[in-house]
Protein: Cysteine-rich hydrophobic domain 2 protein
Organism: Balaenoptera physalus
Amino acid sequence: MADFDEIYEEEEDEERALEEQLLKYSPDPVVVRGSGHVTVFGLSNKFESEFPSSLTGKVAPEEFKASINRVNSCLKKNLPVNTRRSIEKLLEWENNRLYHKLCLHWRLSKRKCETNNMMEYVILIEFLPKTPIFRPD
């Protein structure tokens, strides 16, 4: 009876270990590089809308192309000011609308260019671990 209101930390440790195990087996993220010729502070003026083969079975090519087109139109409208913030907000909206339900997460990331030593912004498509069905929310 003395253990009635005692808090156990074992469950939290088990949950952390399970999350780490799920993250360990998730595939590498998909990188969508810019295809435009003009860059502003490393942010390309257009992203390639070609469907990556690693997303086959995860998301429809039409949805992928529509999302990339929305990012490109955002770039076209806001090129001079606050481009990074507006793209991050757009990607967050896309994640909440569709991609989190498909266990995907889109985000803007800074990476080194393959051709030179400069930094560029790319879209990273990360695979989220699936939550086990036998665990309640």
Notes: Residues 61-77 form the longest helix (17 residues). The mean pLDDT is 75. The beta strands are 30-32, 39-40, 43-44, 104-112, 119-127.
